[in-house]
Amino acid sequence: MPRIPCEGLRTRASPRRESSEITEEAPGAGFFRSLPPLPLPPNNWSFPGDDHPPEQHDCLKFCLFSHEMAQDTLDTSLNFEFWLNKAVAWGQATTLESQQDVCLHLPQLQKFLQQIYETLKHMDFHTAIQRFPLIGQLLGRLCWNPFVIGYDENQKILMWCLCCLYCSEPWNTIELEVNIWIRSLLCHLLSSSKLGLNEVGTVSQALGYTSPDYYPKLLKNMVLSLANELRVNHLNGFSIGKTIPDKQIKAMSLLCIPLLTLPDILPLLEALLTYQGDESKEILCSEFLEGVNESFLQKKIALSESAVLSLWLRHLPSLEKATLHLFENLISRHRNASPEEMECFIKDSLLPQAACHPSIFRIVDEIFWNALLETNGTSEVLTVIQVFTRCFVQAFQKNNDQLKFPLKSYFPYTSPSLIMVLLQNPKDLPRGLWCQHLNHISEILKKIVEDQSTQSCRSLFEHWFLFIHFGEWADIAAEELLMLRAESPATLLWLLAFYYNPHDQNQQRTQTMVDAAEAHGHIMKLFGRTPLSVKDLQDVTDTRHPRIQRLIRHLLLNFLLLSPDGYKIAQEFIITQTDEIASELLNLIARITYRWNRLGVETQRPAKLAKDLLQELQCYTMKSEFL
Amino acid sequence: MEVLLEQLERFAEVLAVSRTRHASSWGRVAVRRSLCWARYLRHVHGRFRLRGPVRAALEGRLRRLRLRPAPLGGDAAPAAPCPESGPPLSFEGLGCGEQLLALGLLENASLPSPALHELLQRLRPEGPAEPSEEGLGNRLAELARRRAASQLLRPLLGSGPAQPDPVLRRTEAELLLLRLRQEAEAEPGAEALLLDRLWQQLPQPRWLAVVAEALLLPPAPGPRGAACAPDEDDPGSPSDLGPAPAAPLLAWLLSRPAPLAALCRLLPAPLLASLAGRHADLAEACLDLLWDWAGHLHFDLTKGAWVGSDPEGLTWERLRDCFRCFCQAPAPLSLQARIALDSCRARDGGFEAPGLSVWTDLERELGVEEPPGEG
């Protein structure tokens, strides 16, 4: 399987272990000791440990901080200390530094909280306190940090944790006070009556509405107001002068990071992404852009096309990540995807539409180029490039309303005449003219390739790479060769030879052409032979011509699909091949059926047969992988 | 059908009780049952939300419940919902009945621990026994998330603690109009009662700001119920409120001299001008009022200015500011204002010299000597 170059992908480092700032608790400290001086509910309760000596309350013994117990599962405990330190340092996330730090750690924090909950859910209060003596501090502090609460599922998990700790039948003061504390913290999380906002409840409460009614509305109005301000700010920028300074816009993007997957925020996200400052420097903070991209790739938010385009235009790493993500999907995760399914994935990714912008196209192309080099031009990658280009051309031609860029901006290092001739869609040409067109392509390419005096090696590959994009024509060439419709098979053979062996020097190329012609002749002779055996096929693909194996296989495969005798032994033959070659052949079959379907070619019977063959072979390969 | 209505009544009582000290007698079973009812009625709401007759019947019964004296030993005022017992149940409220119940129980300090424990267990993913119970925890968490989001975004809106928060006002205005529509559907004339009560209850500047905002909300984009079904998440969005959502509010304002007077006296002049520009009736009423008040101003020779006899009443400055804003407003209002000025001045005797007619001086101050239609 081809390895996908993944240099563009970033991995997040796991949290560094920092030194613990927590000193060992005195005996009898219990759950409440050193709760943070945050605006907690107004009830002033004295901490149980203050008034009563420890031995009078057995339960307090459970609350003793036990170092030994903590050492058991080192991982979670040390992490606990780490996160508690973080929570203390963050406070309510009022400073820029604390906000940035919170945003950096949000995904890991959620995972950690999930782990904590998994542990807590089997415990009651006492066991929990033994296990995590400082759980109260942690939960309390986190619940007062709006960045933490606003992120993804944190608020849910924190709520669950608090529900776990609630004592169902409190039989002493501690448990009663724990219950009160939990209740007030839950109220703080969920309810309106203890809001920190200025009298927001007065009118709404007088009207008889509660938080489920007005928070969605309030949030919606906030988002619309901010999005509007951004738009106006942008318009005013040149004449009246901005009302919102750039620094505040950066702060806005930071504040949105925890809220990315909240659907209500979408208008603000779009307004931020499409906002253009005056400076060439990026205003939005990079964590925001990364976060948006990540959420988009995981399909957690539904951004509009223009917003995604803006994102990728202003943040290169996001574009790279999106392309690699697509590649991974197509090659690794959905290995047996047919080109039709690939088309769906590709269109969903919005990359072809975005690639109508030349700078984006060039970056995506660069990644394709690298993939091609790393995998030595394996068939899967060629197919991906081909299908992507088809989707891109569709998007490009549909893109009527916006400014169309000249074709040269997409392929700047190649000859324009070649671009034009390759761009021709076979669907728009009558079938009889395909050969003529192929000849035309071949002529142009030949001229470019043989004009070595002015061409560099790089230029050669550029032209080859361009040809790869429209590799459909090479597939058609192979077919036409088999159907004997070509007037001069040599021209078509040259095309195929160039497709598979672009780096041939003059002498080598002559030799290649001779070998290819011989192989072609050999295969054509197979048409008349009955009965056809697998050995006959193997004779063709033996190592007489080691350098054009792929070309030969391509021709042979076409033969197998187009000749009834060949079809009968196709499966048998393919099974005898190595895994790599078999998957290459399968990929070719998929490409061929895809093309036949699209072009409405009247080879209906072969098309159906090819599809059946493909299915059978795929089942076979899957079975053999298990064994 | 009758059974359903009875169940509805029962649940409304339950919801009311859940917020009072009477909930101290609740145990686990009570909580479980009440959540069950809430869930059942949520399904009812979902089924009949778009079906006229059944929905109307349910709303009718809920309306009657609201007007009934609270079933709490008569210690609540009959016409007003007891603030301790929380908001009256509406049909829309059935849709989030579970959340309302859960929040009510959570906020109720007198609920005993086992009962609250029962509720809290149901918020966890392992808690509920039946799959249909899932979702309450999720919905509450969503609420928490939205709350945090508003808290995060609020500093960006740029309003300090001293300034009124426009987004808040707008939200309150939308809620006001929503409530008015619900009251109007329930019973004609109920809106006026509600508005009277709010006028009494709320601090004036606050109330007036909300009223002003409500009257300035943009009208609905299209005919009611045109494009899509009413937005479930946002029932009070302008498109859902119909073509003239503020009509009852305007009618009330015009029929109540005290609020109208307060509006004219206290609202910032530019805001008053926007209001008047939007609603012609209001413009007329304001101008009448201003004319009436201006009659109480007399010229104090020692100070060389117009003063009012009543220290609380209209001042010369206020009169001037109002008229200035009116005259600077777009077409119909500015015209109206100038015509009013001219006619008042003529009525007073058409003097040119200062100090004789308040209207002359006003016109001179504002520089509107020219006949209307020019400048």
From TrEMBL, chain A:
GO terms for cellular component: chromatin; cytosol; Fanconi anaemia nuclear complex. Pfam families: Fanconi_C. GO terms for biological process: cellular response to oxidative stress; interstrand cross-link repair; nucleotide-excision repair. Residues 1-34 are annotated as: Disordered. This is FA complementation group C. It comes from Sarcophilus harrisii.
